[in-house]
Amino acid sequence: MTASVRILGIEGTAWAASAAVFDAESDDVFIESDAYQPESGGIHPREAAEHMHDAVPAVVERALEYARETDDGPETEPPVDAVAFSRGPGLGPCLRIVGTAARALSQALSVPLVGVNHMVAHLEIGRHTSGFEAPVCLNASGANAHLLAYRNGRYRVLGETMDTGVGNAIDKFTRHVGWSHPGGPKVERAAEDGKYVDLPYVVKGMDFSFSGIMSAAKQAADDGVPVADVCYSLQENIFGMLTEVSERALSLTGSDELVLGGGVGQNARLREMLATMCEQRGAQFHAPQPRFLRDNAGMIAVLGAKMYDAGDTIAIEESRVDSDFRPDQVPVTWRTNEPALTAGRGVDETRVRGAEALVDIDRDGGRVTKRRESKRYRHPTLDDRLQRERTTLEARLTSQARREGVPTPVLTDVDPREARLEFEYVGDCDLRDGLTVERVRDVGRHLARLHAAGIVHGDPTTRNVRVSHPERNRAECEREDERTYLIDFGLGYHTDHVEDYAMDLHVFDQSLVGTADDPEPLREAVRSGYAEVGNDRVLERLQDVEGRGRYQS
Ligand SMILES: C[C@@H](O)[C@H](NC(=O)OP(=O)(O)OC[C@H]1O[C@@H](n2cnc3c(N)ncnc32)[C@H](O)[C@@H]1O)C(=O)O
Ligand SMILES: Nc1ncnc2c1ncn2[C@@H]1O[C@H](COP(=O)(O)OP(=O)(O)OP(=O)(O)O)[C@@H](O)[C@H]1O
Ligand SMILES: [Fe+2]
């Protein structure tokens, strides 16, 4: 055995044939990579696999040489303690080649094998290099885009793309305008000379989708809008969406640490937006060095070392690869500390900061005043548009929902230009701080009622529901009707699409998984409440929606 743990990492999920050596004691990470560059178009899975076949042995050999050169243990011992490899997600043909190489190496060196989830590695490297205890993680990579937070032994997906990964979306646009792969860096360069044009902006709670904005961007380029302007505006909107959902995740979990992962994280504008957002809300932001952001075996070796330390190795027979491997499928064996959600605000607090707004609370007067803040990270034109649209919608939908029999606060005043709303004060605490099966079932009924009226809430989370809390206000709870109120309709809209109703339920479901200690009975309750009042087709579609967010190349 060497003095400190040393791990050989191998990566090859799509384009980067990469091997690395991580030395836990010195924290030294040696990385050797060989990138696949398609001659035309995007990544071809077969060609990429051929690249892996040709390039993996050489990068592994270089890494092993380095391991031997820097090894101070006896020569008869292997230069590393384990071989860690990317098991997925990724392109099947590539993964299989890397898996075969890793198994052979683990046998040849007589060291254990560690099977690493590539997406968890993208986020763990940021936790490792930042030293943050319990950050929210934004993974912005080619084939994925996830918002993740640790809870009860897993990384929970708080939000994700509903169609393609963020890098792939950008790459498809650059292919359309005839630029070579990868497109991300070219968009970044072109954007330097651009000015803002209007493009779609789609967030649903902490989920988001790129299909609308990408078709509009292609259309704009076809219509003769200067490509620089399209690139600039794509960055403003796409990264604005990712920053907004990151802020919402910080707000929901009460965390004040954010880390970035994935190849798109190399983009300076994205990093700037995230840093500005964190600064504005008093949170800390960390982005690892570029060599750890793009696909690389260093992150595989670093997480491999943590897993190895925890005894989380894998038998050769069980080490098959999984091209759909989701981050929330991984039992997190290497973390023991369970961060508590920050406690709900005290009864006396008079000002609350949400993800979007500052809310001033006048409990005695029975009023709250909500003011959407200008976001410094956002382009001023977009910021202005979103603030005004959302304030108007929130006013309208809050009242319409009540007419449909869904408890909401009475709107007493609205000023769209100032992005200001005044409501009746309702409930005693947020559902997040008083989660019960009965209340969650109520939310299911409320959502069903809204949907039946053609309204989508848009951001139903455990913080956007107010409940009466027995310990905080006895008198209140002696009322016969303990009510569950929906608030914050700013992302709502009218629609008759079953898909949109299912998405609404999905958003609530994700917030339960992200904030509850024992989410299963609650997830059951929201479905049963919904079934009492609503349309079964929506619940069926929910199952479909849950199957998405899989690896899509
Ligand atoms: C499953 C795995 O194979 C996949 N990996 C992956 O997509 O490679 P990654 O290195 O994380 O990200 C590559 C993407 O990152 C984009 N990219 C690179 N530099 C960029 C930049 N400066 N601005 C925007 N995008 C950039 C590229 O255009 C490309 O779409 C993933 O993590 O989803
Ligand atoms: N009518 C109300 N009665 C009582 N409390 C309220 C009311 N409206 C808002 N709050 C409190 O203020 C918090 C933030 O409000 P709201 O969700 O509307 O703001 P936001 O910035 O849009 O938040 P987010 O986007 O993070 O959900 C709520 O979680 C709730 O605790
Ligand atoms: Fe990646």
Automatic annotation (TrEMBL):
Organism: Natrinema halophilum
Similarity annotation: In the C-terminal section; belongs to the protein kinase superfamily. Tyr protein kinase family. BUD32 subfamily. In the N-terminal section; belongs to the KAE1 / TsaD family.
Pfam families: TsaD
Keyword vocabulary terms for this entry: Acyltransferase, ATP-binding, Cytoplasm, Iron, Kinase, Metal-binding, Multifunctional enzyme, Nucleotide-binding, Serine/threonine-protein kinase, Transferase, tRNA processing
Class in the EC hierarchy, top level: transferase
Main localization, broad class: cytoplasm
Lineage of the species this protein comes from: Archaea, Methanobacteriati, Methanobacteriota, Stenosarchaea group, Halobacteria
Catalytic activities: L-threonyl-[protein] + ATP = O-phospho-L-threonyl-[protein] + ADP + H(+); L-seryl-[protein] + ATP = O-phospho-L-seryl-[protein] + ADP + H(+); L-threonylcarbamoyladenylate + adenosine(37) in tRNA = N(6)-L-threonylcarbamoyladenosine(37) in tRNA + AMP + H(+)
A cellular component term, taken from the record's GO annotations: cytoplasm
The protein's name: Probable bifunctional tRNA threonylcarbamoyladenosine biosynthesis protein
